[in-house]
Amino acid sequence: MPIKTAKLSDPAVRAFVTAVNASDRERLVELLTPDATMADDGSDRDLDDWIDREIFSSNGHLDVDNESNGGRSLLAHYRNDTWGEMVTRWDFTIEDDGRISRFETGQA
Predict the structure, then answer these.
(1) Relative to the CA of 60, which of 2, 21, 28, 94 has its CA 20 to 30 Å away?
(2) What integer pLDDT is reported at residue 31 of this predicted model?
(3) What is the pTM of this model?
(4) 31 vs 79: CA distance, rounded Å
């Protein structure tokens, strides 16, 4: 049974999942540091291109199954119109100001 987004432990991760599921690109970008980076399946990707392609233009959605590392690591079912649904892992680096400077995702 998925964890309700409102119950996720880390505020930045909770806001990230909320923004993804609401298809709120502006809010998601506000959560990221200006120099934020990301990786998908172990390869660094262009952040803006990736979030547009994998989240916003393809109706991305996260259902979190488990969290660890104080809520900064997730195991989730992720789905979008391009790839369908898959079990994924998400790891976040959060800065002192509460913004995300890096996230890594990939199939679990």
Answers:
(1) 94
(2) 98
(3) 0.96
(4) 21
The whole-angstrom separation of Cα 18 and Cα 6 is 8
**Is 91:27 a contact under the CB 8 Å cutoff?**
no
- Indicate the helix (H) or strand (E) that contains 75: strand 73-80
Distance CA 75, CA 88 (A): 6
Q: Helices (DSSP H) in the chain: which residue ranges? A: 11-21, 25-31, 47-50
Share of the chain above pLDDT 90, in %: 99
Q: Is residue 64 within 8 Å of 75, Cβ to Cβ?
A: yes
* Tokens coding 29: 């970008």
- How far apart are the C-alpha atoms of 51 and 57, rounded to whole Å? 8
Q: Residues 28, 73: contact at Cβ < 8 Å?
A: no
